[in-house]
Amino acid sequence: MxxxxxxxxxxxxxxxxxxxxxxxxxxxxxxxxxxYGMLCAIGSLTVIALHLAEKVPPTPGFASxxxxxxxxxxxxxxxxIPLMMFRDRWRRGLGRRWVLLMAAWGAVWVLxxxxxxxxxxxxxxxxxxxxxxxxxxxxxxxxxxxxxxAQEGTR
Length: 155
What we know:
Strand content: under 5%
Low-confidence stretches: none
Number of helices: 7
Largest sheet: none
Number of strands: 0
Distance between the termini: 24 Å
Structural class: mainly alpha
Shape: elongated
Number of domains: 1
Radius of gyration: 23 Å
């Protein structure tokens, strides 16, 4: 066996070993999904809290709905921290999906805040769970398609 063949054989073995290790690694989730999960939880809890705040007897100098909105917006700001910390690790392709996901979240949040004091608010609150489930399913599908393309490229 010549040294070139030995080097090729060693390179092939190392590549197979690296691929095996890569398959055992947990799938990485962009930090944006940590934020999106937090935003969906905040949205759902905001709608429920506003619904319940409407039932609190009025107290002079205290607006329970305002308190709910203020704390919700504080938590929205806190949810943005992972984005700022890990923004350099975002994968390509998330940009368009992120805009769509945030638009959907914003629309449901506004709808939830508007109808929170009605019974419809309790119907809107679980929609945030659906938004998050759709987001994660979409990311899993995109990850699978990228992994499939990467495996075909190594064959």
